[in-house]
Each structure stands twice: as structure tokens, then as C-alpha cells.
Amino acid sequence: MATARPRALVTAAVRGPGLDLLGELADLTLDSWLDQPTLRIYDAEQLAERMRAEGATIAVVESDRCAGPLFELPLVAVGSCRGDPTNVDVAAATAAGVPVLRAPGRNADAVAELTVGLLVAATRRLVAADADVRRGEIYKDGTIPYQRFRAWELAGRTVGLVGLGAVGRALRWRLRGLGLEVIVHDPYAGEASVPLDELLARSDVVSLHAAVTPETTGMIGAAQFAAMRDGVVFLNSARAALHDTDALVEAVRSGKVAAVGLDHFEGEQLPADHPLTTFDSVVLAPHIGGATYDTEVHHTRIIAEDLCRLLAGARPLHCVNPGVLERR
Asked: Which of 166, 219, 249, 279 has its CA 20 to 30 A from that of 265?
């Protein structure tokens, strides 16, 4: 271990055995961004100032911006409690010789479970059914619920997953357990992958789980919706940038897309008067796929174990800029 005991500023939400390990490795200042009365996300200057004030050389963050002035400090490491450390200027960290640790797969089970929930809620129109009960309109317009909410069962249908990363893999076995056939489009999945046009033509449900890259941004647009089966179910629990929202609205209006489940919107919110809010076959969640206590347990353990390796002079398993390790 390093001879001088470091201090870590921890602004991520942390819990579980990994927190005990962090406490063994460093003196901790715990100040989770999720425990604040209002939203608090430090920009690079604010985080650097807080690090100076605490005398910390390790930052364990989730949403705070790590860039510029932060890397002028004598840091041991930055731990980003995210699968993809988009909040960190990795190039600046590398130039400063600071290892950046990440937490891949931390929320895979959480997002997979939410996706199953979106699928069931959208296809069985549970939100609309709940609203009828709450309004006392079970026999709405003289009908009975069996008339208004009949639906096809999921078992025996085909789901096409676009992306087979940690979330895609966690979702695949869950869907198979529900009796669905699962096919995948992912250029990096080898023989498991089918061409996107084939997936769109075969799938009763299309579910997006790809990372946002120049190649995947807007990958599902008007042409792709048109290529899907009539009455398809469309799910996106990854990022809204993967699909064209205007094209999705038109596909729902036309009946091409029968049901939708979304867990992300550009700018992290959807206007209250957006057309998607007018369809009772559309289920909308405000980016809560990873919002479980278990996610916090997972990312705490992953970051703590890699920090332990780093301080012991071993190679961390999840360092996004491993080249800096050779210079230490």
C-alpha cells in the first residue's frame, strides 16, 4: 500500500461492503449528490475547490464534471461510478497521469428489470388501466375493462435487442425466461448478431441497448420504423439519441408502432405537452433504469476493489487510461 494514507472525497452514492473497503483504503469525506435537498452537480472548478478544501487526492464521483482545474491537483485517482465515464475528461486525466477508474455493468440488472417492466406496462396498458381505477372509471363509456384492455401475450413472440452489452445480456435471459425468442443486432457480438434490417423485419418487439456513438446516433428513424412489423412494440431504456423522436411519434400515430416504453429523453426531460404524452399505449419513465440501491452497492464495490489494486501497486481491472499506470 502507499505509505501515506490518502483522503478521498466521495460525492457518489455509496453503500455496501465496498464502502467498508474504501474506508480501509483512505480517510473518507462522504457527501453524496443524491443526499442533497436539491440537485447538486459540481462543475470542474467547484469540484477542484472542494477537493482542495478537503485535502483529498482521490475523487469518487458519479455526475460531477472532472476536467481542467481538477487535474492540476496532485491526484492519486478518479473513480467514476459509471459504466462509461462521460463526466470525466479522460484526455486531460491522461495528460496529468491520473488513472480513471470506471464501474462497468453496475446497473445492468436494474436497467434490464425496468425494461421488462416497460414491456409489460406498455403491452398491457397498465398505466391507462391504473388511471381508470383511480378516476372511478372502471366501466368507462359503458364498457368493461376486458373490452378495453385485451392484448396479445408475450410468450412465443420475438424480441430484437439492438446492442448486447451488459444490459443487453442481462435482459436477454430474462426475456427468454418469459418465453420470448431473442435475436440480437450488435456488430461486436460475433455470431450472435443478425443484420439490423433482418432484426427489424423479424421482431415483434424492438429494444435499444446500444451506446451512443457517431454510428448509432439516430440509428432508428423513419425508414427503420417503416421496416418494422405492423403493431411492433418499441422500447428504449438506453439513450433517446439512438432514435428519431419525431419519427417515433408519427409511427405511433399511424399505428405502425402499437406500444412504446421509454426511459430517457434529450435534455433529461419531456415537455408536458409533447405528443408522446397523449397516447395511453406509451409508457414514459424519467431515466430511472439504474435507480436502485443495488446499483450503488455494485459501483461502490467495483471502484473500491480497483482502488485497492491501484494502491497496492497492482493493475486495476477497469482503468480507462491504462497507459498512465506505466508512468507511475
From this structure: 166
Say which of 50, 169, 172, 239 is annotated catalytic: 239
What is the C-alpha to C-alpha distance for residues 127 and 236, in angstroms, rounded to an integer?
A: 18
Least confidently predicted of 52-66, 121-135, 187-201? 187-201
Residues 115 and 257 in one domain: yes
Please state, in angstroms and as integers, the Cα–Cα distance from residue 161 to each residue in 73, 134, 172, 205, following that order: 43, 35, 8, 8
Task: Say whether 268 is catalytic.
Answer: yes
Write out pLDDT tens, residues 188-220: 988 889 999 999 999 999 999 999 999 999 999
Question: Is 318 assigned a catalytic role?
Answer: no
CATH of the domain at 296: 3.40.50.720
> Is residue 1 domain-resident?
no
Q: Residue 120 falls within a domain, yes or no?
A: yes
- Residue 51, pLDDT score: 98
Q: Based on the domain organization, do 143 and 116 belong to the same domain?
A: yes
Task: Answer yes or no: do 100 and 135 share one domain.
Answer: no
Find the catalytic residue in 24, 191, 215, 268: 268
The count of other CB atoms within 10 Å of the CB of residue 277 is 12
> In angstroms, rounded to a whole number, what is the distance separating the alpha carbons of residues 303 and 170?
21
User: Is there a domain that residue 2 lies in?
Assistant: no
**Is 253 annotated in the active site?**
no
Mean of the pLDDT values across residues 236-256?
98
Q: Containing domain of residue 153, as a range?
A: 108-284
* Residue 76 sits in the same domain as residue 210: no
Q: How far is C-alpha 262 from the chain's CA centre? A: 12
